[in-house]
Each structure stands twice: as C-alpha cells, then as structure tokens.
Amino acid sequence: MSKTSKKKASSTSLVASSPGQSPKKDASSAVVSSSEGPGEPQRSHLPLWPEWNDTEVNAEKWDAVKASKDSKNLFDDPEGKVELPASLRVHTWKRPSEYIVNKTPVVVDNEVAFDLTSANEHLLSSELMRWIISEIYILWKVCNTGEGKPVSAETVSNTWRPWEHIYSLCKAGKGHIPLYNAYGKYVVKLYWMGCWRKITVDDLLPFDKDNNLLLPATLNQSELWPILLAKGILKVASTDVPVYSSGRELGEFTVIHTLTGWIPEMIPLKSWYTGDIWKFLKENIPKFQYEEESSEEKAKAADDTTAKDSDVNEINSETDTGTATAATTIPQIVVCASYQPLHLLEKRTSVLTKMADSSESLRQYGLSQLYSHPVLLTRTRDCPLAAPPKPPPVPNWKLIRPRKQTSITDEPKEPPVQKPEEFIEVCSPFINFKLMTVAAHDMEQGAVKRGGYSSNLASFSEMDDSENDHPKNDIIQNSPNTLDVTETNQVTAEDKNKGESIANDAERAESTSKSEKESDNKDKERVQTAKESNTVLQSQDESDKPLLQDTWVDLHNFTKCFQTLLVFHKPDTYAHQCTTAHCQNSVSSRLSASPLSNAMASTHSVTASARQPESNTTYHTQSADLKCTYFLFVDNLLPTEIVICFSALAQWGESMEEKRVSPTRPGFLTARPFSWKSIASELPVLQIQTTASKAALLSLPPGRHVLHIQTRASFAIHVHLCSMSPFVFGDEETVVPHLDKESLRFCEQATMILRALARVVSCFSDPEALPSATKDLERTHGVGIQQQRVGFACSQTHTGVLKRAQQIFLVIQVFNEAVYQMFCTALGRKLTSDELFAVQTLTGDPSPHGSNEKAADLQSESNPEGWNGRQVTDKEMQAAAVLQAGWKGYLVREILTAARPGTKENLSVTKTLEEMWVSVESDLEKHAVALLRHMVDNGEGIAELYPCREDECNRITFTDYSVPVPEVANSWILIFREVFHVHKNMVLVPKIYSPLPVCILHVINNDTLEEIPRVFNRVEPHLYTPNKSGYTFVAEAHTGDTPLSGGKWCMRLIGSREPVPKLAKETPNNNFSVKELKGYYIPNRKNIISRHMVKVSSDHSATVQFQTSQSDVYIKLSILDNEKEVISNQGKGHVIIPVYCFLAGNGGSVAQTGARQDQGSLTAEGTLTGGKEGSDRHPTDTLVHKYCIQAEVLQESWPLDESLASFIQNLRDEERNEMKVFGDFLDGTSASVGADQQNKDGQKSAPKSTHKVKEREKDKDKLTSKSSFTMGQVSNLDATKPHWTLRVVSDQSKAGTIEVKKDTEKLEEIRAMKLAWETAEPGRAAKAHQNRLRYLKELQANAEGKEPITAETGTPQSQQSGEISVLSKNISKTDIVYTPFFRKSLPQPRLKDQLIEEEQRRERSEKFQSFRLIWDNILEQRKQEKITRREMMKRQLETYVGFQDAMDAYRQKMLQAREAYSTHVLEQQPLNKEEMSVEATEQVELEKNPTQVQPGARKSANKKK
User: Fold this and answer.
1) Which candidate, 108, 652, 803, 910, has a CA 20 to 30 Å from the CA of 784?
2) Is 858 helix (H, G, I), strand (E, B) or coil?
3) How far apart are CA 558 and CA 573, in angstroms?
4) The three-state (H, E, C) secondary structure of 31-88, written as one string
C-alpha cells in the first residue's frame, strides 16, 4: 500500500459487544486532517475504535522490520492526520527521526518525573492543550501521592503512569514499557463511550512555521510518550462538540474520564449556595490539620491504618472496569474546579462584570483567566495556617470563683464579628506562571514592544491576513494590552530581572536582524539556538520546582474564581452499578460487524469484539435522532443516591465546514417519576444535556420509586449508573416483575405491628407490662395516630371530631378482623371456640369475626318443620333481641374477666394465645404482610396512616395476553376481542405492545355500552366496578404495505391488587370471520351513505367498522333496532362500533317481513308502521328485533368534484331503474290492453285471463331475480371513485348465525304494492302508462302552440290509441328533459287538498301561539327583574339608613359619656380648691405655733431613741 493511498483512505467502524456482555456501542465522529491547505477541501474520517482486548494487542503486528528495510514505507494513520485546535497552525509534518537527529527516539526516558510546562509554553495559547497538561498532572498527583499530602480520605496505593496507555513492541500487562517503533505504529488505550478502546496512531509530528512542535513534550526532546498520548486524546476530543459562539476549543470533554473511566459530574458554582458547597467539600476532601495534631492521630491509629492498608485492593485506572473491585464501603471521588477563559466579544454587561470580578479574584491567587484550566482541590481549612499560641497555664486556685473581666467605657461596645476561617487548597501547574521566553514568531514579527513582562500571546493577535479566515479561540482574541498593571506589579524581583534580560536579548536580536538582513534559514537557526538556550536555563531554574503548586483560596472568592466543580466518581468503589448502550440502526448496519444488543449487563464483564475491516467510503449519515426509554426501580428504607453518567455521540463523520453550517444538537437524558396506573406526566427530577460524557447525582427519599428515563442523541448513547444501594435498571420487561412485591417500608411497618402484637401476647398475663405493650400496639397500627388527630380536631368543629372518632372505630374494627384472619391462615383451619374466645379477648372485640361463615353454614341447614312458611311475630323478635343482648352482655363480661391479668380465665387465654402464636412465628414476615394488606384493602383511608402509603402507587400486578398478528397487507384488521369479568372494585390499565404502527384498544362496558375514555389513543386508568356482563376489550389495527410475518400482539393488563380480572374463556380467540361490503357513494338529501339489514339466528356479538375512500369525511355509524338508534359512534374517515350484541327475535325480523311481502297484502306498510309505533308497548321477550346498520355523512364533509357528475348520474339512473316493475314489458302489452278496453269494458275471457296470469307470474319471477341482483354488491370497484367499505367481524365459530345484506325493504314494499294493484285490477299498469304518455303529449303540444287532442273532439278511439302509440314511440326516441317541470319541495310528491291546507294553517297558528307565549314570558320576566331591582335598591337604602341610625346612636352615646365625664371633672374642681385652701390654712397655723408637736411625731422620736 502506498503512502498516498493511506492518507486518503478513511475507515468507519462501530463494534458492538458480544452477546452476554455490557452492550457498549462504539461510535466516533469526524476527524479532519490539519495538514490540508486552505484551498484543499477537508475530508472527514471515521476512526476505527474497537473495544480493548489484551489478546488482540498481544497479537498485533508492529511491522518494525519494514522500517529497517525501506525507510519510506512507514505507517500512516488510516484515519488521517489528527485534528489540532484552531489556534495551532500546522505548517509541516515530520517523523521523529527527522526531528531528533542527535539522539535515538524513545517512548519513555524518565519514569520518575516529567515536566510538561517548561517546553510547551508555545502551546498554552490553546485551551485544549492546557486541559490535557493540567489533567495529566492532576492524575499523577492523585494516583502517585506520597505520605506527606494525601488527596483522598484514605491513602490508596494506586500507581498510574501515563505512558502505560501506549503500546508498541510490548505485551499488554501491568507495568509494561512501550518501545520505540521505527515503523511508526502505536496503539493507545483510552476510555470512550462506556468501555476501553483501542486507538491506533502514527508518529507524525506537527510543526508550525517556526519549527515548534505543536504537541505536548517533555524537556527531553527524544521522549515521545506525551506526543503519542496527546494524539490519542485529540482523537477522542474530536467527538465532542464545542459551542462555537463561546470561542472555546472543547465542550464537556474531560481528559481524566478518557484516561481512567471515572465518571465526571459537573456542578455549577453559584454564590447563593456557598454553604452547601462548603459542606460538600468538607465531607469529601481531607481537612487541614496542624502537624502536632496529625502526628498524634497517626500515632494513635497506626495499627488501624496498617490493617486497612493490607485490606485495600489496588485500583488501576487503565485496566478494564470489570477487573477492579470495591476497596472501601465509601465511594471515592476526586474533586476539581475549572473556570472559563476570557471572552471579550461578550456584549452583555452583566457577564462582562462577572468576568472582570473573576479575573481580579484569580489574579490575587496567582492564576490568570487567560490560562483557563482545571485545578485540583486537595484540602479544606477552617483554622489559621499557624497554630495560635497556647494560653499560659492558670493556677488552680484562680479557677475557683474566677472574676469576670469588665472594661469601663463611656459607650457600649459591640462585639467584633469575626469572619470564619473557610479556605480551600487548590493545586495547579500554572500558579504564578509567567512566560520566560519569547517565541520565535514574536522575534521575527517584532512583537516585543515593552521592556517589562511580555507574553508570546501577542503573536496570535498579529497573524498574517491569510490566516484571519480561520476561527480563533478566546486566547487569540486577546492582546498583551489586556494584562493589567496590577498583574505586572505582582511579579517578583527575580522574575523582573529575568524579564528584563529576556527583553534586552529580544531587542538585541531584533536590531541585529534588521541591520544584517540575513536569510530565512539563518534566522530560523538563530531562533532555534536561542530557544534551546532559554529552555536549558529555564529547566535549570525550575529543577527544584514541584509539578503542582498549591495556594489557599477563600471560600467567598472561590465561587467568583471558578464556575464549575468537577467531581470524578470512581465506579469501582460503588457496590452496585449497571450500564446500557444503544446505537442508531442506520449507523450500525453500515459500520457494525455484529448486531447491537440492548441487553443489560454490568461493567464488570468486558470481552473482546471483532474489528471492522477498513473501508474507503466516507459516510455522512442523516437520520432521525436515536431515542431510548428505560425504567429505574429503587426500593430502600434510607435515602438513595445514584450517580447517572450519560454519554452521547452527537456528531458522526462531519467536516469542520459542516459543523459550522449545521450546529449539532446535544444529547438529552430526562428522568421523571412514573406510574403505570396514571397518565399524568410528572416534572423531571433530573436532566442531563451533553455532547460528550456528563454525570449527575440523583437523590431519592426513602421508599419505593419508579423513574422513567428517556434519552435522545444523534447517533449513539451510553448510560452508566452507580450506587451504594441496590436498584433495578432496564426496559419495562426488566423492571415490571419487581413491582408485584410489597415495598420494604410496607414490610417494615407490617413487621412492627406484628412484633408489637407479639409483645402483647407474651405479656398478656403481666399486669405491669401489659398496659405499655397495648399502647405501643395502638400507636403502631394507627389508632394512636388517629387519636392524635382527634385531639387536634377537638379545637375544630364538632363534625370533625365525630369523623375522626368514626375513623378510629374503623381502624380498630378492621385490625381485629385482620388478626382473626391471620390466625386462621396461620393455623390453616377455622378457629375452635376456645381459640375464638382467646382472639376476642386479645382484641377486646366481642363481635363474632366468623359471623359470615357461620351464617352461611346455618343457611345451608334446613329449618324445622313447624317454621316453614310462617312469619316471625313481634313478640318473637323482641324475645330474640333480649336473648342476643343477654348473650352479648355475658360474653363482654367474660372477655373483661379474661383480659384482667391474674385471673384463671386470663391464664387459660394466655396459654391458648401462646400455642397459636407458634404457628405465626414460623413465617412471621408473611403473616405480617398479610395482616397489614388486609387492613389496607378492607379499610378505607387506613393506608394514609402509614408512611408506606406513597409506595402503593408503584405496586402493580399484571397479566399478559398475546395473539399472533394476521399476515395481511394494507388492510384494517381486528386483532383481539375478549370479555373480562371484574369481581371487585379495582383500578386497571391495559397497555398494548404491537408490532403494527397503528393499533387502538377499546374497552366497552357491556351493561351500559359505554366506552372507557381514551387519551391519545390510550385507554386511561379507570376504576372498574363489578357488573353483570363484564367488559369487552377490542383491539383494532391497520397493517402496513408489507405483511408482517410471525408478529405477536400483546396486551398487558395492569392492576393494583390480585387477582387481576381473567378471561371469560381459557385462551384468547384470534380467529375472526369478516363480512366485507363495498359500494359507491351517491349523495342524497338525507346524507345517508348506506343502509344494511342484519338478521341473526341466535344472540351474536359483532364488531362493525366503516371506512370511506376519503380520509377527511366525518361519519356517523349507527345501529338501529326497529328504526330506533340503540348505539352510534362518530369518526373521521374511519369509525368503529367495537362490540354490539345482536339479539335474536321471535323468528327473525327480516324473514317475517319478507314473508309478509310475498303474500302481497296491502297492509304491509301499515304493519311496519304499527310495528315501529307499538314496539315500546311490547315486552322484551316478545319483541321482534329488526336491526339496521346505517352510515351518514356529517357536516356535508364529502363534497364531490364536478368531473364525477356523469358518474353519479349513471348511478342514480341505475338506482331508479331498480324501482321499475313493468318497465320491460309495458311497451309490448300497451296495445293489447287498449284493444281489450275498447271491445269489452271490464269483461275478460278465460283464455286471455289465463294468459295474463301466466304473464304476471313471469313478471313476478323477473322481479324476484332483479331484486336479488340489486341486493348484491359491486364486484369490480373502481378505487379512484368515491366509495365506502363496511366490515362486520364476528367469531369464526358463529359466522353462520349472522347475515348482512343491503337494505331493500322500501324498494320491495313498492314493488309488492304495484304487484298487488295489478293483481286486483289487471291492466292497471298499462293504463297508467298510457295516461302518462297522453299527459306528456299534451305537454309537448302546449309547448308547440297546438290544441291538445282530447276525447271530446270525436276522434275514434282506435285512431286515438294509434296516435298515442306512435307518439309514445316518437317520445321514447327523442330526449326530453323533464327536470325543470319537477317540484322537489318534498321527498315524495303529495296532492295539496283541504286537509293539507288545514294542517298548514294549524301549524302556522301554533307557531304564532308559541312565539306569543315566549314573548309574554320574556315580558313577564323583564317585569319581574325590574321589580326585583327596585326591591334590592329599597333594601340597600334601608340598610344604609340603618347604618346611619346606628352610627348616630353610637355617636350620641359617646357624646353623652363625654358630657358626663366633663361634668364630673368640673364638679371635682371646687372641692379640690376647698381642700387646698384648708391645707394652706393649716400650714400657716403650724408655722405660727412650731412648739405644738403632734402625738405621732413624739412617738416616732421616742422610737428613734
């Protein structure tokens, strides 16, 4: 194979898993070669990525011998050259032997450490390259951490080497070292779409104009592992779809997921839930501790950690997912954070403000928004970095009654608010990262314009005009001027000196180049020499620098700096996990070597699969999105957390131009609560949208949950679920069998009740423990809850209290019955009298629990002979009531005595209960569930008392019924029709699984003939009640253009309880007989399409379907019984009556009508009318049923084209000819009839009469044969003309008991009537024909202006008859249009006489009277409304006046009170003045006579002494 052919070749492959393993579907997307020039059209290539297989890799042919023989015949990647980011411009491609001259290339040189930042500064303008370098560093730190700084909760010995993903000239195994292959063929092992993939790459290296390598490399230029690993990662990254408007180079692709298979969960960081973020980080990453504390804890737990380390399994991130086992009971995660790059083209002010704040916050911690990349979160800290000094020791004597320190201030001091210490340690290779060198491109273009800190990013904003048409990422759109002064000021002195020296060197180099004007080759040599020298210096300066540098970020600024939290879950540490995958059929048919399976499997079973042969064809698949539906079942007593990882393949073999023109739609995953017993759609609880792989955490409360998971992607999907709790995930067939069991909360509640009952039984004779055990039992089985509700309702209305009391009584009663049933079930028999008394004493209920069974036994016995046929007297009733009351009182006293501990009866009951309880304990859980289930099923509202009530909606039982699908093409078929009988009230949901695209189910109540409502052609959940005739389930379908062979139709009947209603037969019947009738549509005034008579010899159930050739016709299909509608249905283009039972009348209505018509009686019409009028008076058993199927057009929705007018007219003429009786022989008999009338008026000879009788018999035979022909259907129907189809479907076994034919009853009645007239008056038809011809001749004569020829002119009769015969011949030959002379106001012509005029006058007077009555009623109503309005206005005025009077009275009352108070105050004022004057007078007297001392004062003085 030549080199050129290999470059142009492209291969497509999608390898499926083999049966029995995890169905991981491979898929890939377009990879565009970056070596193609701007003018050359880019070709899309589909990579060959089979699943990984060690055996296949060990047998790989590396062809290293070919390279030694012929250096030109080297390996080229059949998928084409790898696609590089748009910010990296490829100029040439070289082999390692061409680039590395002095040394021999090796894959791995240094196995201890590596440096991917010093030699790759020219690549840091690419966001994708920064992510690759950062995540390789993060994985190295996480998996190869020493004892000093652990990054996980438990130190795990897990070594990871990035070069172990590369295979060349080596065997697959742990710790292998790939060797350099001179042929250039290498295999990279990466994780993609749910499994490890084998990705083949070559060793072609891309270079730019300045001879810079455009792939990551170490300082050792001869080391190839970063280049080869990056090429494989770029292939996988090309399947991701970045948002072009955002200017980013990658979407949701993560390198860690590709290198380890860890599940990436992306959590957006928002400032309003900072507390939750801090709590999450404290729980999942280690906490900062002081060295002293950590050393003490390590010393204490030395033995424990040694034991743990010995038990922990080694986790290898490269190996298959199925080979690793869970090391600990706690899932292990790795937490990272990322931020988006600067995007200056953003026009929204709010976003620009956030970017400015984020940039400023990042700059404070040594990060730059120009270098967006993920960082590793290692520790949290809620204390200072340095331990605070310990307080001096306090003597013990000062601890006794210590004094409070008080500070005397003139103003109160507020206690200082101390900000909590909340910091997060982040690690990154780009902390305080500054570019130390100037790119060669900058030196050539003279981009260095300042002597301080400079960046090679300036070169990307000053490219040539020829490169401006290519898209640039966010870094390209920035210039060095965007760096703020603050960033420059934060550079250390050492960095400044380095920057100045580098800038001086650059200026010196620039001046030298301008002055000397050397050739391009010399410039490149100089640039390369300067670059190598700078690299050596920088490597020496950073030899002691760690791979990742760390810094502490304040929690307040953490949400400003970073926008996304990346949480990588290790799936091997989860106890339960499940995967599923699916691929587009159109893609798999082209690209897959084996069919894809949808089987469920765990990720622990991954086997090899066959590879696809290479293909030179490029596929551009354009098909509908792939949609899959799954169900998730969880039943847990504790909250459940499930990590759901969704991988979507959004693009497939598209070039870059196609991606720009038609943006790719991402994949979607939606999870919402689901119940088969409800059609309501719940809000989604989880939504994932991605173009690569993305995970989310699903948190569910305790209990049973069923989630409906819907996925959608363009080409392929993969779903991976991990959880520490058990769950069931899969299709409906996988999940539904787990739903018929009781939920765990239901079983737990039932076990609690039964254990409480067991405690009551065990301490039934203990007077001290029995009360507490009884209270626990009441609180457990719901009585205590009801009592609490009653206590709360006491403050409410009396009705609420009464209702709660009734509920308590119901709970107690149902519980007592359940206990009785439980003991009967456990013992397997009826209880004896002693056992029944023990149960009554235990429950405290004297009512006989087995009263129904005893009553049935008593009824079976015969009554005494003396009591037969006599009624009970009142005294006997009173005596029986007294006996019952006495017996009940005696029983209650016995129960109370036996329930009192310490009595003899109590000991006997306790012994009996303990003996009975042994059989219950043999299967405690079963009897507990039966006890609670009996309570829930027989007590209304009892389920609401327990927390397990929410689980009842997800408990279902089901039964499947399947029948084969008939192999017919493009036809309507009836698939299923059976009767189900319901014995109890239950909610049922029928669900259809049909291979046919159109299938509808109808459910009919046979008692009321009502159909259960349907929503979107699906029968809604309905409460089915017991009825007499049951419910009929009817399924109809329409087959496609090709018949379906071997198809199975299935109906799943889903219910809430057992048993589900069963068929009336043993097996469903699928053998039906179809009577199909077709005909053309003839418009008429009644809008009737067709009428068909039905007669049955026995009761017959049938399905009637009617269909029109035009699909937008509104139809009404009815079944009439004696011209009364008994059932009908409406549809558009298609209508069906699912089931109707035709009852057999006394002899059959159709046969009886035909017999009466054959007799030729004149009362035939009167008989039919009388039958219709008198049908209501006949009882049902003697009613003669006469069924008719009638189809009508509604809303004039079947208009016909004018081009069909002649065709419709011909059909009408044929229908009119069917009504003629003597049309075939009237012309031949008219002359003879006229001669007989001239010779003998009314006299007929015997031979002639005999001859006429024979002729009439012949005519009658002709009539019969003609009627039988008209009742037949159209044999050769033209499908292009408007037509209809009627189908009557019945069971094959009863097909002979039903007959369906066209309704010709009216036509036969008219014919029978004409024959009767002819029999009564021979020659009547001929005479009428002659009169008609004479009338037509008169009309013609009047039209021509001639005198009419009548009998009064004296013309001989023979001559007149001859002229009439001649005229009749002439008229028959000429075409005369009589349509304008016909008056079509009535369906049948009538003669207007006095009776009709009187009837019309009466109708008009009745209309006038009815209108006058309505008018009078309206006037009376208006008058009444006017009176009502006046009364309302009057009441309003009275109310207003009453308000005014009340306000005036209240105001007057207030004024009176105020006046009384003021009067009282004024009266008190003079008294106060008099008292004040008296006191003043006394005071003056005391001042005048100070020697007078009061006796009290003297006494008080003595007391003081």
Assistant:
1) 910
2) helix
3) 29
4) EECCCCCCCCCCCEECCCCCECCHHHHHCCCCCHHHHHHCCCCCCCCCCCCCCCCCCC
Residue 622 in tokens: 């354009």
Confidence check: pLDDT of 842 > 70: yes
Residue 720 backbone phi and psi in degrees, to 5? -130, 125
Residues 625 and 665: beta-carbon distance below 8 Å: yes
Report the alpha-carbon distance of residue 119 to residue 98 in Å, rounded.
Answer: 19
Q: How far apart (Å, rounded) are the C-alpha atoms in residues 551 and 334? A: 18
Task: Residue 783: count other Cβ atoms within 10 Å of its Cβ.
Answer: 19
CA distance 382 to 286: 12
Q: Are 455 and 503 in contact (CB under 8 A)?
A: no
Distance CA 567, CA 335 (A): 5
Nearest Cα residue to 850 out of 876, 874, 866, 831: 831
Q: Which residue has the tokens 């700078």?
A: 534
d(CA 568, CA 565): 10
pLDDT of residue 798: 58
d(CA 959, CA 1447): 76
- CA distances in angstroms from 370 to 127, 244, 428, 800, listed in the order given: 9, 18, 14, 69
- H-type alpha helices, 450-607: 458-461, 485-489, 493-516, 520-541, 555-561, 585-591
Distance of alpha carbon 1341 from alpha carbon 1334, whole angstroms: 10
Indicate whether 302 pLDDT > 80. Answer: no
What is the arrangement of strands in the sheet containing 1283-1291, beginning at the earlier edge strand?
Answer: 1072-1080, 1283-1291, 1100-1108, 1134-1142
Eight-class DSSP state of 156: -
Helix, strand or coil, per DSSP, at residue 1208? helix
Q: Give the Cα separation of 1325 and 1331 in Å (integer).
A: 10
Whole-model pTM: value is: 0.70
CB contact at 8 A, 652 and 30: yes
| Residue 338 DSSP one-character state | E
Give start and end residues of each alpha helix (H) in 421-492. 440-445, 458-461, 485-489
The pLDDT assigned to 345 comes to 59
**Whole-number average pLDDT of the chain:** 74
- 637-665 pLDDT per residue, tens: 999 999 999 999 887 666 656 666 666 78
Burial of 1327 from C-beta contacts in 10 A (0-12 / 13-18 / 19+): middle
Using DSSP, state whether 583 is helix, strand or coil: strand
At residue 1363's C-alpha, the angle toward residues 1361 and 1366, to 5°, is: 110
Find residue 1011's DSSP bridge partners: 1004
Nearest alpha-carbon partner for 705 in 640, 644, 630: 640
* DSSP class per residue in 1045-1106: SS-EEEEEEEESSSSPPEESSSS----EEEEEEEEE----TT-EEEEEEEEESS-EEEEEEE
Ramachandran angles phi, psi of 396, nearest 5°: -65, -30
Residue whose tokens read 């986790």:
315
Residue-wise pLDDT for 763-798, tens only, equals 988 888 898 998 888 888 766 544 444 444 444 455
Identify which of 179, 1, 183 has the alpha carbon closest to the alpha carbon of residue 74: 183
Taking the C-alpha atoms of residue 688 and residue 671, their distance in angstroms, rounded to an integer, is 9
Burial zone of 62 (CB within 10 Å; 0-12 exposed, 13-18 middle, 19+ buried): buried
Classify burial at 981, counting beta carbons within 10 Å of its beta carbon; exposed 0-12, middle 13-18, buried 19 or more: middle
Residue pointed to by tokens 């009187």: 1398
Q: Is 1116 helix (H, G, I), strand (E, B) or coil?
A: strand
> pLDDT by residue (tens digit) across 1278-1330?
888 999 999 999 998 888 889 999 988 888 888 888 888 888 888 888 888 88
Q: Which residue has the tokens 């260095």?
A: 448
